[in-house]
Amino acid sequence: MNSPSTSPTIPRTTLGGSDLQVSRICLGTMTFGEQVDEATAHAILDRAVDRDINFIDTAEMYAVPARRETYGATETIIGRWLAARPGMRQRIVLATKVAGPSRGMPWVRDGADDLQPAHIAQACDDSLRRLQTDVIDLYQIHWPNRNAAVFGSLYLDPSKDRFYTSIHDQLAALGKLVQAGKVRHIGLSNESPWGLMEFLRLAEQHGLPKVVSVQNPYALVNRAADNGLDEALLRTGVGLLAYSPLGFGSLTGKYDGPGFDPAQPTLGRLARFESMRKQRWARPETLVAARRYNALARAHGLTPTQMALAFCYGNWRVASTIIGVTTADQLDECLAAWGTTLSPELLAAIDAVRWELRDPAQ
């Protein structure tokens, strides 16, 4: 692993059609307030800024795994970090998210199953307060406010359609936040090609803010974005924010051994939290695929982490890759992978594995 002084500089890019200049690597913060205590979180944030990272992503529902006791904790930790460092707010691009309809979280808006305009307005005000800032640079809808196949669901079930606040009304609510100066730009997360295009169509039709980014999973074990969303992003100029590039740790090699042992402190969320093992990232099929990719990396003289991150870092689809860490050393390892080039032969071998095993963490 390269030392901080010898690791590459992380370049910046313009996000979508916005005026936001963001680092090509974004610091995700979902671990802050659960796996990572406040002092360590602040140290990681300091290190990230020192290492050219100016893009920080969070959400109202964090920390993860979501619990009543830690709802809003991550934003609060970031807010205290900003308050203790005068001038820091002007150096960073700050993104957060309003949770969509309830997914078993009664502590979020009393478990409301529809994201209404008033909810969006109140959630933004609450995030501004916790973050101790006057403006959010990128405000995102965390998951669709409609019946949609998300978070590992392979198929859309039309029988579950019902009334939800319309996309137009969601956009209008977000537009009011932009007009009020509370939000600079808006984005989506866990969104489909149809959803993105509908948001864009209605924004143009009604003179409402245009979505500048979509934050979706993108990793060797989940390349669903390659099948339709990528063209929508390319043709519209919207940026992809790739999350979980290491497949919740499965693409680091830490789970290449048998099973998940919570007693092993070196293992991550999939071992520590039983609720995490029920998600797509811990499916047996996902682990089989991850082990194939990890072995492929080692055969080409790379660590699994290097290969998995380099696949995202160098991908034309990705505007910025969101990395989540629990230590400053992990942050350094992720940043050191910047500039790693995957040969045409290795990329072909990666595609061959995908052709055989597809996207088990989709």
From TrEMBL:
InterPro entries given in the database record: AKR (IPR020471), AKR_Detox_Biosynth (IPR050523), NAD(P)_OxRdtase_dom_sf (IPR036812), NADP_OxRdtase_dom (IPR023210)
Residues of the NADP-dependent oxidoreductase domain: 24-353
Record keywords, A-Z: Oxidoreductase
Pfam families for this protein: Aldo_ket_red
One term of GO molecular function: oxidoreductase activity
Signal peptide: none
CDD domains: AKR_Tas-like
Protein name: Aldo/keto reductase
Organism: Pseudaquabacterium pictum
